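Closing statement on the nickel (II) ion sub-project.
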Amino acid sequence: MEIMNSDFVEVAALIDSHCHLDLPHFDEDRDEVIARAREAGVVAMVTQGVDLPSSRRAIALAERYPEVYAAVGIHPNDCADFQPSMLDELRSLAAHPKVVAIGEIGLDDYWKTVPMDQQIRVLRLQLDLAAALGLPVILHDREAHEPIMAELRAWVRERLPGTPLAQRPPYGVLHSFSGDLAMAHEAYDLGFILGLAGPVTFKNARGLQVLARQLDPDRLMIETDAPYLSPHPYRGKRNEPARVKLVAEKLAELWDMPFEQVAFLTTGTARAFFAFDHKP
Ligand code: NI
């Protein structure tokens, strides 16, 4: 496995745990984007599926670039036309050796593009698929804190035990976490970790920064959500995985910790979470 090759790289290696490299935003210069990530110390990037076509594109990118891994899944805003047969397709895509998670899945009560009961139905099916496959989940939660925690509670207590994933916590990540400290603690207690992206660097994000100071550095992954959520001072511009470094630098400041230690902790967490060392 490439990222294990050098002890030097080991020290400042970063992992972008959530990005969307298949989007047309990168069609002009994808090779350069990956090269800049490499130069910034990013040793792995997990590109997300939001529907079946993007899940297939994520796998194609993982085949093309050694540092890219794929998550496959159906996003809550893209599940209006969900058919049960799509689960079979996801199951066969997930058998690819570079698929490391089921995602991006979850609930979204902000855009309201799909009725909540449909989103919940599709989320439940994908949580159970992940459990059966032993793969962690990457969770999107926008303005849906209470319903998503209700779903995770029910999943962990009633349906997860006895499945392959139950042998290997953490079970998932709440990506670009936007809840409060009580929600973070409940997520930890249930066996989940958190992800932080560019918003923690925003000048007007004092609330999120106060929260970030209180989060457990051992249960956090960093991410870009590129091409979205570009960190300060690139807010509003196209984001790319190299800028995960700005998220790590902000956490170093908030946690009063050397940058190298933030890199070491978050990269270690991501390696264990995605089980990269068991992948080709
Ligand atoms: Ni995303």
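The chain has one domain: 10-278. With this model delivered, the sub-project is considered complete and its resources will be redirected to Aim 3.
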